[in-house]
Design a protein that fits this description.
Uridine Diphospho-n-acetylenolpyruvylglucosamine Reductase, domain 2; single chain; 4 domains; Uridine Diphospho-n-acetylenolpyruvylglucosamine Reductase, domain 3
Length: 460
């Protein structure tokens, strides 16, 4: 436990109502979507950058680890307080400070929920594209820290493509500003991009300047069933080769489709072994033409059936099929390891076949879905942890999946980050020289290894 004098000093910084050491409260901040759990010694709820700076200065003086936390929805263990210490949550910093309709930018605090921000900017005719699956509860600060993606990133890009500037508290307790509200700026190093995706190891984000776009006038959603994953993957390449970039190109393989059918009663032809959900957006007058052109391009590639939404309600119904995937997987087994490899999109069918071989080798159920437009495959290894040896087999399977993705020119994480879960596998992808370069940055900015220690690199 932290010494009473330290708790007293923390209380003086944030106030007694914004600090807790109650066991039940600590438990609430001990876990994330990985289902691992580590109890912190105290949870603090600051409301301003100056409070966070004071906390970091105290932590450095006393050598207490600090673990920044947004909504705790991450899949890689990035927010887990693995060494006890202080969990610093940005939940109270939840204000949209400005939506500048003239310059198409917004300034927000890190605790703003992603979907609530999207609703706010769309109400004035603007658009923030990044849409992680957790958008209904994940926070923008966490999205920046993990460089979150989502289905729309095939056309619009990921979180880092929309971050113009940041206010950040450094690991040693200074407050700095990176970037700003201009579309261009090349003075000094691009610290904004360095911090975006740094997983809370290089600074605590306290303010975000975000680039916005005009809201597309309309969208059209298609669900296309194929007789093989090869046809679905070839369809993705063919669409893009014909100079059409859809908003989304989501896929589900045959095993995922079986899970959804069992869970939802979805009626599809028996020949269907893969699904693409294709959505286009833009000027209303061009959408029908674009959708029809896509249908023509993919028709020879084993299309079994095409469903095109004609109303917003029908579009929502098609997307509900995709949203039902995660819940439906529990029909296979109660526990899962959720990985998010990324390969060149033309290699998706090759990767799926290699995953199938790994599934057969270890006797494990593996289901795959994700963002086919950018080759991002969510590999879900479904097990029952109560069965002896299942978790160990899953760990071996995960390593083989990573190795196969890397052999195809891919990466072992497209959007979830490294955190704690993937840290042991870092040497598979990053050379010792590159890792040393990254560690040198961490050491220079956080000499006492106070901020989110043990993440990305286990020896940090």
């Amino acid at each position: 436990m932290l010494a009473p004098r330290i708790l007293k000093e923390l209380t003086g910084i944030v106030g007694s109502a914004n600090l807790t050491t109650e066991p039940s409260d600590l438990l609430c901040y001990s876990y994330d979507a990985t289902q691992q759990s580590f109890l912190p010694e105290v949870v603090v709820h600051p409301a301003a950058a100056k409070q966070i700076a004071a906390i970091m200065q105290l932590a450095n003086r006393e050598l207490i680890p600090v673990f920044p936390r947004g909504a705790g929805s991450g899949f890689s263990g990035g927010a887990l307080p693995t060494k006890g210490g202080i969990v610093l949550t940005t939940e109270r910093m939840d204000k949209i400070l400005e939506i500048d309709q003239e310059n198409l930018i917004a300034t927000v605090e890190p605790g703003v929920v992603t979907e609530q921000f999207q609703i706010a900017v769309e109400a004035v005719g603007l658009f923030y594209p990044p849409d992680p699956a957790s958008l209904k509860f994940s926070s923008l600060g966490g999205n920046v820290a993990e460089c979150a993606g989502g289905p729309r990133c095939v056309k619009y890009g990921v979180t880092k493509d929309y971050i113009l500037g940041l206010e950040v508290v450094t690991p040693t307790g200074d407050i700095i500003v990176t970037g700003g509200p201009t579309m261009k700026g090349v003075v000094g190093y691009d610290l904004t991009k360095l911090l975006c995706g740094s997983e809370g190891t290089l600074g605590i984000i306290t303010k975000i300047v975000i680039k916005l776009l005009p809201l597309p006038e309309a969208k059209k959603t298609m669900l296309v069933l194929f007789d093989s994953i090869d046809g679905a993957a070839q369809a993705v390449s063919s669409i893009i080769k014909h100079k059409i970039i859809p908003t989304t190109l989501e896929f589900m393989d045959g095993r995922t489709l079986d899970c959804v059918k069992q869970a939802t009663g979805l009626q599809v032809p028996d020949a269907a072994r893969a699904v693409l959900i294709i959505e286009v957006d833009g000027d209303r007058e061009f959408l029908d033409k674009q959708a029809n052109r896509i249908a023509e391009i993919i028709r020879p590639l084993g299309v079994v059936e095409t469903r095109i939404a004609t109303t917003p309600a029908e579009s929502e119904a098609l997307w509900q099929i995709r949203r039902s995937v995660s819940a439906s997987l529990r029909k296979v087994n109660p526990d899962k390891f959720n990985e998010d490899i990324c390969v060149p999109r033309s290699k998706v069918p090759v990767m799926i076949r290699r995953i199938d071989a790994i599934s057969e080798k270890y006797g494990l159920a593996i289901v795959n879905f994700g963002h086919a437009g950018d080759g991002n495959i969510h590999v879900n290894i479904m097990i029952d942890k109560k069965i002896p040896g299942e978790a160990e087999k899953a760990e071996h399977a995960i390593e083989e999946v990573f190795k196969e993705a890397l052999a195809l020119g891919g990466t072992m994480s497209g959007e979830h980050g490294v955190g704690l879960a993937k840290a042991p596998y870092i040497p598979l992808e990053i050379t010792p020289q590159t890792a040393a370069y990254m560690k040198a940055v961490k050491k220079a900015l956080d000499p006492n290894n106070i901020l989110n220690p043990g993440k990305i690199f286990l020896d940090n």
